[in-house]
Amino acid sequence: MVNGDGAHEHTEESDSKQDGNGEADGGEESNEQEVIVIQDTGFTVKIQAPGTEPFDLQVSPQEMVQEIHQVLMDREDTCHRTCFSLQLDGNVLDNFAELKSIEGLQEGSLLKVVEEPYTVREARIHVRHIRDLLKSLDPSDAYNGVDCNSLSFLSIFTDGDLGDSGKRKKKGNELEQIDCTPPEHILPGSKERPLVPLQPQNKDWKPMQCLKVLTMSGWNPPPGNRKMHGDLMYLYIVTVEERHVSITASTRGFYLNQSTTYTFNPKPANPSFLSHSLVELLSQISPAFKKNFTALQKKRVQRHPFERIATPFQVYSWTAPQVDHAMDCVRAEDAYTSRLGYEEHIPGQTRDWNEELQTTRELPRKNLPERLLRERAIFKVHSDFAAAATRGAMAVIDGNVMAINPGEETRMQMFIWNNIFFSLGFDVRDHYRELGGDAAAHAAPTNDLNGVRAYGAVDVEGLYTLGTVVVDYRGYRVTAQSIIPGILEREQEQSVIYGSIDFGKTVVSHNKYLELLDKTSRPLKVQRHNVLNEKNETVELCSSVECKGIIGNDGRHYILDLLRTFPPDLNFLPVEGEELPPESQRQGFPRQHRHRLACLRQELIEAFVEHRYLLFMKMAALQLMQQKANKETKTDVPAITENANTPTESNADTPQTHTTSSDSSNAPTTEVSSDNPKSREVVLNACKAVGSISNTSFDIRFNPDIFSPGVRFPDDSTDDVQKQKQLLKDAAAFLVSCQIPSLVKDCLDHSALPMDGATLTEALHQRGINVRYLGTVLEFLDKTPAKAQLEHFYRIGISELITRCAKHIFKTYLQGVELSALSAAVSHFLNCFLSSFPDAVAHLPPDELVSRRKSRKRRNRVPGSGDNTAWASLTPSELWKNIVSEAQSYYHFAIECESVDQVVEKYGLQKSTLLREISIKTGIQILIKEYNFDSRHKPAFTEEDILNIFPVVKHVNPKASDAFHFFQSGQAKVQQGFLKEGCELINEALNLFNNVYGAMHVEICACLRLLARLNYIMGDHAEALSNQQKAVLMSERVLGIEHPNTIQEYMHLALYCFANGQLSTALKLLYRARYLMLLVCGEDHPEMALLDSNIGLVLHGVMEYDLSLRFLENALTINTKYHGARSLKVALSHHLVARVYESKAEFRSALQHEKEGYTIYKNQMGEAHEKTKESSEYLKYLTQQAVALQRTMNEIYKNGSNASIMPLKFTAPSMASVLEQLNIINGIIFIPLSLLPHIIIIIDLFSAFLLTHTQSVYNGSIIHSLSHSHSDGGKLRL
């Protein structure tokens, strides 16, 4: 069997997995038909609400009645209602019914909104909803990182929504009113990197005050006699006019009562203003409320929905302005209850997370609608669980949760909160003593999470994993897990029926587990193997020994402790008496690591198997050809047959695509025709050579227990174990000798373009390289001959290495800080790390409140207490000594610097970049202001500058598999030149993504970007603009306002704005992109050349020639540096510069540049190429112009003022010609539609970027193969 399958078969993967039909065509067609079933046509209903005109609403048959409720609660004229029912002909509609199931509901039906009596729950929901409406423009939730709010600034640069403003603006004479000069810090060559422009001030956020105070009254809850009058609760309100009122929420609505702050009188006031909605009541008693609330709602509904929708996972901002802390009853109440979201909506209050997580997995998945429902449920529960786990982990570290073993010392405590189990990342009871103690206990949770992710992706029916979230907060690592039913009542020894609880000393096995795990063994490349237990009996396993199987009280088969799902990394695991291959030894491996849990990544395993597969095919083919040559008879050629598709086919359209994917059911098998002994021998030889575990087919799997201390193998498997050891050594060597060089090659040809630490890590992970190899990668770069062209990569690598070392030190540093000194400690650490001030002294917080004796006694209770002042003794020189030694011991990389200024000097780093990286990695939020890092007289940070510490959260990202297959088929169609079909498929993918993820998600972002690109190429500029605007907003919200992806999205949007004639907006967007890029990675980056070419061209278009030249010449310099002086990119840069000089009538300079370009074209493409001819024509034209100009000048000199002057042609460039150049540099060529099917094209300019992006999201190797299939994705452009 061939292990896994290729990218080209991936489209059927889900179908075969779920329907068992492996045929490609059947799979895809059935898929498309199913989709059509879902897309039932919508219809329109009329809605009549009290006090408003009836209005039309477009609905779809799959919607629930509840979704109409949501729409009404969001609409401007009905948003103040929450407690109502919808009635059709006097019948109340069930909230959870689908519209198609309601009798008599059809096109044009009239639905009445009927006010219903309140209950306590409904009254609370109403108050909460009114509070949300009052806060709807307030960004403080986004700054504080709560309720899945996050920041977005696009609307500031586009002056609101692009769609409308595009129609409003006068297209033609827009030129006159543009001020094109960017702020000084954005110009090429500027050295200052201000922080404040990162968050421009949004004038909409100036709060319109509707009320001074809205809070629960101290008279709550109503006493018994008032309950019987229908009182539900009391509110206390202070209006803008300073009127203090007390309000009763009753079953009939809200009215004024006669209570004051100190006397309780619940009788209705006169007049009582009884109203069904709180807004109606307040509008009657406060004119300011009425006016401002209306204005606020107008503004709220004008905002783009994507600025308001919650994201699926919380995004934290590392900078924030000083926000006033306002009184907020709902927030106060939430802080002290364990509620999460609208928990009262769920009967039984706290959620049984384990039950929810497992039940969603058990949903049926036979056809597309079922799969969509299932994936949507899984995704929703996961994002809720991640939010709950994060909140719980913070509560645990902040000391708000009681331990279940309070008698033990702090680091050994465990906690349960909201049905989630929390443990700290310390080595409790010497469990990991053999493996590296605390370092191993810190690494185990992330390894375990990777295991959970891998088993979750294989998705075997009947095998269950725990919900797992790993949270790093305030220097502690907390693992949050869902609880197996019944596990807390039993001892672990009794419950484990598979695996080992003591790293292999005692081992048990179980047939059902072997059967379930066997289904995962092919996709995860795990070999079934035997080990010995304590009685020297053979026990069969199909996973590592640590993997434990427990049957819960619910009868489900759970596996946990998946920390060794993937085999060990021998480069970081020195073993007595074992030699590594020479490729590893030359690089100085094996190296001692902090712990013995270093594993190879799943991406590496898959790349290695793919590599071996190609080797296997080559060897077999070679031997067959030799046999054929020897024999010259055609009898037994068809010896190797592939039952899924032949290797030649699979590799014809996309070179190197035979990627293994995480699916087993339709892996192509290389079978042997048994009647032919010769061909059997061929396969046997090839199998032996590549280390296959079978002799008759290609099948590589790893035994994860090799080299585990404490695991013993039976004597009869000695050969097998030797083979496995060799495989592991080969895989370790493969990482060093193939994957690292291939990463460097991809960076050289710009198909990988990391911009910051996160995108660098992604590029490493995508190729299966762990971050612990960062030092090795940097050394490899250092020895590369083309080192100068990799300077950007080297710089990002160094800054990543330094900030990671600082993060390791910061982790232990924070553990010794008590809560009251947190901001002082963090600012002191940042001063030591970044400030040039040589003797940063910590400001101990004044002991205004704490008496020392008292704090001593309570030392042990909260994890974050420790010795209060040890942290204060850290000095800059000591911290940098520690960073240097950490770099040496962890990354085996020598940084020869003793201070931040030496590092900045030696490696060309920016302090703003280091600050951003360390803040994001550790969760620090700092005040947004200009910091003076370089002052030698005072430290850069004070404790007032540290606003918050956020958790850094790792969790599983469940996938929308069907949507992804449509997305991929769409991409493939586009690459074959079928734009229209591609466009349809991608639109379909977008629908399915929305169906599973809701409106906000990184993958939807990629989808929108590609759609916008296709719209643009097919000439629909307005649609391109609309889709790209959504992509930018989504990228800001889901990835962060200065994430490299967001920067790219801004550039795309600028191009489409320019094409739509919105020049000033295009410039603003490009300037924003340039500012963000300077902050994130500085000016010296290949991507900056593209950005500057764009800016230069737009400026040329608006006749700002001098400014344009500054940007274009900078682009020329950067292109020359990173692409080499003879590259075609440089030729194009020369041409762009020449055009601007021509517009300025400086023909000599223009000629000089165009000649350079011409020479490059001639040398690279030959005389006859059209580019060379074009350039030669342009040279002739320039020469004529220059001669004409010279003649005119001579005429003037000779004849003075009465010279007869030939009029010279000075033309401002036409918009069309500028747009044409913009399209060329952004990699877009328009092709007459008649030619389309015959031209194979590769679109996305950032195809490589897009792929890396989706890759990180899709932890499979599908994309990996796609990016191979045009590994020059950066160059081969449409």
Which key phrases capture this entry?
single chain; 1278 residues; alpha+beta; Ubiquitin-like (UB roll); five-stranded mixed β-sheet; 44 helices; globular; disordered C terminus
Summarize the topology:
Elements: H1 10-19, H2 24-38, E1 43-48, E2 55-59, H3 65-74, E3 84-88, E4 91-92, E5 110-115, H4 120-134, H5 140-144, H6 154-158, H7 162-168, E6 211-216, H8 224-227, E7 231-239, E8 244-250, E9 253-256, H9 278-285, H10 287-302, H11 305-308, E10 319-320, H12 329-335, H13 353-362, H14 368-397, E11 414-417, E12 420-424, H15 437-458, E13 463-465, E14 468-473, E15 476-482, H16 492-495, E16 496-498, H17 511-524, E17 529-532, E18 538-541, E19 548-551, E20 557-560, H18 582-586, H19 602-631, E21 640-642, H20 647-652, E22 670-672, H21 677-690, H22 718-748, H23 757-766, H24 774-783, H25 791-815, H26 822-834, H27 852-857, H28 876-891, H29 900-907, H30 911-922, E23 924-927, E24 946-949, E25 952-955, H31 961-975, H32 979-997, H33 1002-1017, H34 1021-1038, H35 1044-1059, H36 1063-1081, H37 1086-1101, H38 1105-1123, H39 1128-1143, H40 1147-1165, H41 1170-1199, H42 1215-1225, H43 1247-1257, H44 1262-1269
Parallel strand pairs: 1-5, 10-23, 13-20
Antiparallel strand pairs: 1-2, 3-4, 3-5, 6-7, 7-8, 8-9, 11-12, 12-15, 14-15, 14-25, 16-19, 17-18, 19-20, 21-22, 23-24
Helix pairs in contact: 1-2, 1-31, 9-10, 13-14, 14-32, 19-21, 23-43, 24-25, 25-28, 25-30, 26-28, 31-32, 32-33, 33-34, 34-35, 35-36, 36-37, 37-38, 37-42, 38-39, 39-40, 40-41, 43-44
Pfam family, one: CLU_N
Domain Clu: 331-573
GO molecular function, one term: mRNA binding
